[in-house]
Amino acid sequence: MTTDLLAGDTALVTGAASGIGRGIAIAIAREGARVVLSDVDAQRGEETAAALRAEGRDARFLPSDLSTASGPTLLLSQAVEAIGAVSIFVHSASPRRLEVDNIMTVSDSTWDQMLTVNVRSGFVLAREAAAAMMAQGLKGRMLFITSLHAGTPRNLPHYSVAKAGQTMLVKELANALGPHGIRVNAIAPGAIPGGGFDAKGAGIERLTRCTSLRRLGTPEDIAGMAVALLADRFSAYVTGTTVVVDGGLALHNWIEPPEL
Prior knowledge:
alpha/beta; Rossmann fold; seven-stranded parallel beta sheet; 43% helix
C-alpha cells in the first residue's frame, strides 16, 4: 500500500539498477514522485524504469559513469532537463567491492574509483542539485547511503574511508543548506545482499548469526526508512543525521581483522 507521501516531488536516484538504490527508487516512485533512475548498468536500469512505468509510475532511466570527472555534472543537467529541478536527490551509487581487499592488497585504481564515486561525485551532484533547488525555491531533501564501515575499521579500507567521508559530507551539506530549507541525511545499512555486497555460503551464515534479528536485510528494509526520511510528514525536523538500519548487526564484532 502506498500513501503518496512524495506526490509532486521530482527525484534523482543514483545506483538505481540494483540493490538498495533500486529498492529506494521503486519506493519513491510508488509514493508519487517522478523519478530519474541512474546507473552504469543500463540494461537493469532500463528494466527497472520500464517496470515502474508498467505500474503507471513516472520513471525514466539515464545511464551515467560517476567515476569520470564530467559524469556527475552531466547527469544532473540531464536529470533537470528531463524532469525539471530535482527536489529529492539520493546517492546510492558505489563500486562493487571485493570482501577480501585489505590495507595491503587494495590497488590505487580501486581506491581512487571508490572515493571518486562515493565522495567526489556525491559532493558535485549535491552541490549542483542544491543550486537548482535554491534557484527554484524548493525545500529539497538529500539522502546518502553510507555504511557501518564509516564508524569502525572492518577491513575494506577504501570503502570504509569513502563512507566515512560521505558521513561528514552529509553533516557539512546539512549545515550549509539548512537555512535554505534543504534537509540532508544518511542511512547506514547492515548486511543487504545485492548491489555492491555479495556474501555467500559461510559468510551469509556468519552474518546472520551476528545479526540480532537473525536475518540479513533487504532493499525494502532500507527503502522504508528512506521514504520516512524524505517525507516531511515524518522527518521535517530531521537533518544532518545518519540512521542505522542493520537488524542489530552493529551490536556484534562481525568482521575479524585481516591477516596481512
